[in-house]
Amino acid sequence: MKFQAIKGVRDILPPDSALWNRVEQAAREVFGTFGFAEIRLPVFEPTELFARSVGQETDIVSKEMFSFWDPFDSRLPYAIGAEEGRHRGMIIESEEEYGALALGDKFQQLSLRPEATASVVRAYIEHGMQTLPGNVKLYYMGPMFRRERPQKGRYRQFYQIGAEVLGSSDAPGIDAEVIEMLLAFFERLNLKGAILNINSIGDKNCRPAYVELLRAELQTVRDQLGADSQRRIDTNPLRVLDSKLEHEQAIIEKLPRIADHLCAECRAHYDEVKRHLALRGITYQENWRLVRGLDYYMRTTFEITAPGLGSQNAVCGGGRYDGLVELLGGPATTKGIGFAIGTDRLVLSRQESGAGEVAGGLDVYLAWFGAAAQPAAVKLARRLRDAGFVVELPAVEMKFGKSLGLADRLKARHAVILGEDELAAGVVTVKRLSDGTQQKLTEQDLFSFLRESRASD
Ligand code: AMP
Fold first, then answer.
1. Nearest CA to ligand 1 atom 16
2. 127-185: pLDDT as tens digits
3. Is the pTM of this model over 0.85?
4. Is 146 a pocket residue for ligand 1 (Cβ < 6 Å)?
5. Distance between CA atoms of residues 449 and 286, nearest Å
6. Which of 31, 97, 98, 189 has the fewest CB atoms within 10 Å around its CB?
7. What separation in Å is there between the alpha carbon of 357 and the centre of ligand 1?
8. Where are the domains of the chain?
9. Topology adopted by domain 364-456
10. Are the C-beta atoms of residues 163 and 339 closer than 8 Å to each other?
11. CATH says 16-68+108-206+262-352 is which class?
12. Probe ligand 1: pick from 9, 10, 58, 144, max atoms within 8 Å of CB?
């Protein structure tokens, strides 16, 4: 029996994992300077949380979630099985009864999270974070799960780095600052060629009328559209604008545009977002078709595309979601805005542009020879590691040629040789593996030599 990772999930191996770490570290640093702090969230939640927030009719909720019925819910003492039930004084009479309960609606349906904004908002409400001073600024990173058709840049377990601002203000300056932070992060990573698209999709005052207008227009061209778009006329007409189908493009271009149907408040908000972006020297493209696939967005939406990714070129999506906190049972006064970066795609884009190499690696391969040298080598390895050097210490004694051959193959910068002669003389032999030069040094000189060698690398 040979096991393999299932379709759509993958292992992230060294040296790629080093690049992942660097990306995540850069996010922590940059987001930290904007006053964001990390929130760590559960990987599964009640299905209902996502159905309510992301939207029952969205692709994500209607067909992409990994869901399961949880028979061990803590509110269900009788769901623990006959033996234990008896133990607790609850006697389950028959298998049939247990079976009937298992089918009953008291079991909770859970889903692996397909995104994290819903969880952040759930946590915000659950912990009464609206009483905290100022805006609550949170970031998260971790795996998300969607049952999508896997392809390059699209996985069933993928990773997001996201951030959310929750608070009583919906000031357009917040939208612009969130975007500024995002671009500062991309800049830190030296990501070239990223393009920012923005749009406003209105709010509950103006969007419904626009959606109806759009639906009516779409009805008139229904038979020219593909099956997906036809279905979306009924379920979610805005999503038709997302279509990538070649033959639908000319039709879509003639549809009414939301920009012409925003209410005065939404129009003013959008204009202010643009002014605040300009204030920060941020360039953008307006894209009236950018509606995003999640129901909770309103007003500002944005997306960033990056080169080298083929058709899955969106590395980040986000927007404002002022009604979501209320929808999930929190205070109506709390507004929100946030984004999620697709970490897989971000890493891929960097690798495609040749910026995927991460310096690092082995400073010292500590080759020891002779039983007497081993304790000295163990102690030296510890002191080198305490000083921050990366050290490989062979666990068993090897022949000289084999040991140095391995040092080469591990791409160590230096082999530090500790044999009985060195031990007697109180020195080590240091060999620079790039050019084969070697010298004998005292331990103190070894440390400064390694430090200089690192600095000049
Ligand atoms: P969304 O949560 O759908 O707004 O997606 C935000 C970002 O997550 C996208 O721009 C992608 O970069 C990334 N993303 C979404 N779904 C996937 C997936 N199945 N595989 C890889 N990345 C994804």
1. 154
2. 999 999 999 999 999 999 999 999 989 999 999 999 999 999 999 999 999 999 999 99
3. yes
4. yes
5. 55
6. 97
7. 24
8. 16-68+108-206+262-352, 364-456
9. Rossmann fold (3.40.50)
10. yes
11. alpha beta
12. 144
